[in-house]
């Protein structure tokens, strides 16, 4: 915690400075509120209207959590299968990489066409968005186990199953977590985008409504909340990573030591 | 009756012939060093004995049974300590047993204690020094159920004194547990100090240049390293190896 404060105060100071400049500019140049509201206005609206818009926040968070869980589980499952079955890997891996080049946003209208405006198309969007980073990085981790450790396991007569659970899976955990961290932020973005396409609740809806009624202040409230949720979610994964990967967390702290 | 028989092992990688007609045997409880220049194929030979690499020709026999291509028959310590970073010292040491079936936690703790690592039983490998890691790695080999231990240059990354300490520790462990050990090194002194017998490999392709018995009395201690006989022996081996090692 102390570490966080020690490292975090500089960017925080810059951020506060930016807000002050922003606030002053709005006042000095007399910018109209519908064009660019001052941070203090945004803050006031955010506090005062909380009871009106909190249902949107909770709807989005729910969507993110469900989507993230489904997306990560399928990413983990697919990476594991591709790793364990070489034929599958050789035939599917290039396709997965290729499909990553399709922007999810262009798929979204199609999904709505196919599955309607319910929860399902939104979940599919988030799942797809979360799936790739996790599948790719976990597969990378599973494939790149240390050669000497591998030789040790083989010579000791390890079965394929022991090889996976005692060597490949634990050594891929750091990669899995870097995938999870990317997906955590992607899933927030995915959720908001999927709500733009049509929903009756959620931050995406709230934003669309706000911008069509020229309430820039509400748009900014939504943006700040989205950033905050992303950050929170990211920190949750980092915290989980520290709990799970204890054999490395402290190693990174004194990187200058010999290994 | 030989315990391990390495019969006519040859190995090549594409055009490059690495091992040529390697023949030797190890008796029960014997400590044998294989001495050879860097890149001569010592690790390759170990991987073949360990059953994870197929030789071009020849056979490996342990207790009258062929173990060619049969992993799990010998206990092996790779060139680097190869500890599993996510396992504590205790769990690392038990890995060999775990793979073969049963864990004997109490004996493991005793051995960790004997190695002077009792405070580190729950520590992760990154918290250990190089010498400590080597000790852990060796304990893992000793605790593994296989009767033959292969050690691939375990001390090459240590300083002189740590190295001598580790060698003495290794000898005491070996004398206590009476397992057969094949020890790979390119350090002449180390081979002399530790072994009953030394097998000298020549360079590319490696074949057995000479085999020598080392009859210094056991238990051996540091003083031996500076004795006249020891140094004479070292000189002889040095000349032998130098002759075959062409300057590059
Ligand atoms: N899988 C492989 N494919 C191709 N060449 C290999 C392979 N494994 C080993 N070699 C070659 O075989 C030779 C011997 O390698 P090896 O690692 O067995 O030597 P070494 O005696 O253990 O050396 P060092 O003392 O440096 O550890 C080297 O020239 C190496 O390039
Ligand atoms: Mg080697």
Describe this structure in words.
- The complex is a heterodimer of chains A (259) and B (248).
- Chain A contains eleven helices and no strands.
- With 259 residues, chain A is mostly helical.
- The longest helix of chain A is centred in the C-terminal third of the chain and has 37 residues, at 160-196.
- Mean pLDDT of chain A is 88; it is low at 251-259.
- Chain B is α/β, with parallel strands linked by helices.
- Chain B has eight helices and ten strands.
- Chain B has helices spanning 42-49, 89-93, 95-100, 105-114, 130-143, 160-177, 188-194, 228-244; strands spanning 4-13, 16-26, 31-35, 57-62, 65-66, 75-77, 148-152, 180-185, 197-201, 208-213.
- In chain B, the strands form two sheets. A six-stranded mixed β-sheet of chain B has the order 6-7-8-3-9-10, with helices on both faces. Chain B has a four-stranded antiparallel β-sheet with strand order 2-1-4-5, with helices on one face.
- In chain B, helix 7 (188-194) packs across helix 8.
- The longest helix of chain B has 18 residues, at 160-177.
- The complex binds adenosine-5'-triphosphate and magnesium ion.
- The site of magnesium ion (MG) has 4 residues of chain B, from helix 1.
């Amino acid at each position: 915690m102390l570490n966080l404060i020690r490292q975090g105060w500089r960017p925080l100071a810059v951020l506060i400075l930016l807000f002050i400049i922003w606030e002053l500019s709005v006042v000095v140049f007399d910018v109209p509120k519908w064009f660019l509201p001052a941070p203090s206005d945004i803050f006031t609206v955010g506090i005062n209207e909380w009871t009106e818009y909190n249902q949107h926040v909770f709807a989005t968070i729910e969507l993110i959590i469900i989507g993230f869980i489904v997306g990560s589980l399928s990413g983990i499952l697919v990476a594991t299968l591709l790793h364990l079955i070489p034929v599958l890997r050789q035939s599917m891996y290039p396709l997965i990489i290729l499909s990553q080049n399709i922007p999810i946003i262009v798929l979204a209208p199609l999904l709505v066409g196919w599955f309607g405006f319910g929860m399902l198309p939104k979940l599919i969007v988030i799942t797809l968005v979360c799936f790739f980073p996790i599948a790719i990085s976990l597969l990378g981790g599973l494939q790149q186990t240390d050669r000497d450790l591998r030789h040790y396991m083989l010579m000791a007569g390890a079965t394929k199953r022991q090889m996976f659970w005692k060597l490949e899976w634990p050594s891929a955990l750091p990669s899995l977590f870097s995938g999870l961290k990317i997906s955590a932020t992607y899933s927030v973005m995915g959720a908001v985008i999927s709500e733009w396409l049509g929903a009756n609740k959620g931050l995406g809806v709230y934003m669309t409504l706000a911008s069509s009624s020229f309430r820039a202040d509400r748009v900014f409230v939504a943006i700040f909340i989205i950033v905050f949720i992303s950050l929170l979610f990211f920190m949750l994964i980092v915290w989980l990573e520290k709990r799970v990967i204890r054999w490395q967390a402290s190693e990174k702290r004194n990187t200058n030591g010999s290994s | 009756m030989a315990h391990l028989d390495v019969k006519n092992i040859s190995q090549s990688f594409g055009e490059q012939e690495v091992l040529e007609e390697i023949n030797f045997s190890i008796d029960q409880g014997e400590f044998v060093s294989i001495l050879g220049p860097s890149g001569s194929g010592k690790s390759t030979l170990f991987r073949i004995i360990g059953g994870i690499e197929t030789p071009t020709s020849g056979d490996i026999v342990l207790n009258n049974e062929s173990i060619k291509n049969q992993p799990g028959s010998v206990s092996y310590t790779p060139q680097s300590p190869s500890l599993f970073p996510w396992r504590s010292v205790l769990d690392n040491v038990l890995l060999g047993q775990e793979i073969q079936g049963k864990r004997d936690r109490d004996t493991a703790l005793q051995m960790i204690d004997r190695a002077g690592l009792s405070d580190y039983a729950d520590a992760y490998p990154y918290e250990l020094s190089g010498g400590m890691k080597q000790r852990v790695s060796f304990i893992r080999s000793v605790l593994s159920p296989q009767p033959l231990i292969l050690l691939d240059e375990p001390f090459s990354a240590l300083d002189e004194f740590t190295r001598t300490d580790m060698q003495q520790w290794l000898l005491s462990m070996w004398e206590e547990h009476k397992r057969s050990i094949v020890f790979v090194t390119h350090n002449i002194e180390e081979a002399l100090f530790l072994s009953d017998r030394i097998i000298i490999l020549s360079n590319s392709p490696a074949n057995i240049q000479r085999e020598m018995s080392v009859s210094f009395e056991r238990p051996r201690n540091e003083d031996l390293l500076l004795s006249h006989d020891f140094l004479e022996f070292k000189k002889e081996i040095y000349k032998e190896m130098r002759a075959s090692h062409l300057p590059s």
